[in-house]
Write the structure tokens for this entry.
Amino acid sequence: MARLMWIGTAAAAALTAGTAIAADPETAGDRLMQGFAQCRAITDPAQRLDCFDKAASALEQGVKAKDIRIVDRSDVRKARRSLFGFTLPKLNLFGNDDEDRAEEEKFAEINTTVAAARPAANGRVEITLADGSDAVWQTTEAVMFPPKPGDKIRIRKGAIGSYFITFGGKAVRGMRVR
């Protein structure tokens, strides 16, 4: 079963109304899990049920208010793929453990097809991908023979934040524009 990640702050605050939370836990997810763990430690069945009811209610309210979002690894992979090519700040939205970092490092290229290609300034080409992400890439150097819709394309990370776009057996430098 995929591990679930819980993200939220207001619901964590709501959860504290029903359970005691230790000072300075690392994340809102940790606070939520700590609240449920404290409920499990209660031996009196009525008090334990009351604690779980309050914790579950706070979690449900947080999800409904969109203060909390529950995602699994599949959702994280989709998000990472859709953001490939953009430089984003490190916000810890997609996890912080070594396994997640290793998975992020493995994700260094996209292999898909071209949905559309159109000329841009100075002989460059703007390429829309057909992978459902609506990603638009642009070559940063002139291209003599642009790709056609349906052509296979490979976009991979290069050094120092650069990217290489390969189509028709040639690799050119590129960047994501949308």
Observations:
- The first strand starts at residue 5 and ends at 8.
